[in-house]
Design goal:
This protein is of the alpha/beta class. The chain folds into two domains: 127 residues, Alpha-Beta Complex (DHBP synthase), CATH 3.90.870.10; 68 residues, no CATH class. 31% of the residues lie in helices and 22% in strands. It is built from six helices and eleven strands. Strands 1, 2, 3, 4, 5, 6, 7, 8, 9, 10 and 11 form an eleven-stranded mixed β-sheet that branches. The termini are far apart.
């Protein structure tokens, strides 16, 4: 495993470029977001995604959120309903995951505000399948050292960007059905969303 420091703009640019090449070649990269550290692979690379499921010890029926750097990265077949568009415009980039109906399945999307995470997605130029960087049942990591302890040589690259800013997972809202539903309140509080958009969440 290679470790890249990313504590200033120059380091971030270099680390993101090197890690993006690993992702495009099917590798697994650990990196910070504003919430917690995550693991990322090319979401369209089925072999890399399968490797990620095994690493996380996760049921393959429970898909990974996709990290994006622009709304254009959302799959063309996804239905972005009016309320989803409203919260995206208000709170992206940021600690908010939205779940959309995409053809015959549901997919969660998040646009992070962390410069390192955004730059990595931009350089890779693909959505990243990106769960938190912890084995199932273990605490979410907020520092690179914890990720290193969890995975050691089971991942290809670790970008060390110091401690994450928020340290709490993203808030998740499901817009895939006519009745929107709050699945998890995380770093972004429900009251803040309701006050800013007028959308009531249950």
């Amino acid at each position: 495993m290679k470790i890249f420091k990313a504590n200033n703009s120059k380091e971030i640019e270099g680390a993101a470029a090197k890690a993006a090449r690993v992702i495009r070649n099917g590798g697994i990269v650990a990196f910070p977001t504003e919430t917690v550290y995550g693991l990322g692979v090319d979401a369209e690379n089925s072999e890399a995604v399968s490797r990620l499921f095994k690493l996380k010890k996760r049921d393959e029926r429970k898909p990974f959120t996709r990290l994006i750097s622009s709304v254009e990265m959302i799959n063309p077949g996804c239905n972005i309903v009016r309320d989803a568009k409203k919260v995206m415009e208000e709170f992206w980039p940021g600690p908010l995951t939205i779940i959309l109906k995409c053809s015959d399945k549901k997919i969660g999307f998040r646009m992070p505000s962390c410069e390192i995470a955004l730059k990595l997605v931009e350089k890779a130029n693909v959505p990243l399948a990106a769960p938190s960087a912890n084995p199932g049942g273990m605490p979410n990591p907020v520092e690179a050292g914890t990720v290193l302890n969890y995975f050691r040589d089971k991942i290809d690259v670790l970008i060390d960007g110091g401690k994450t800013r928020l340290g709490v997972e993203s808030t998740i809202i499901d817009f895939s059905k006519p009745k929107k539903k709050l699945l998890r309140e995380g770093a972004l509080k429900v009251e803040e969303i309701e006050n800013a958009t007028g959308i009531k969440l249950t």
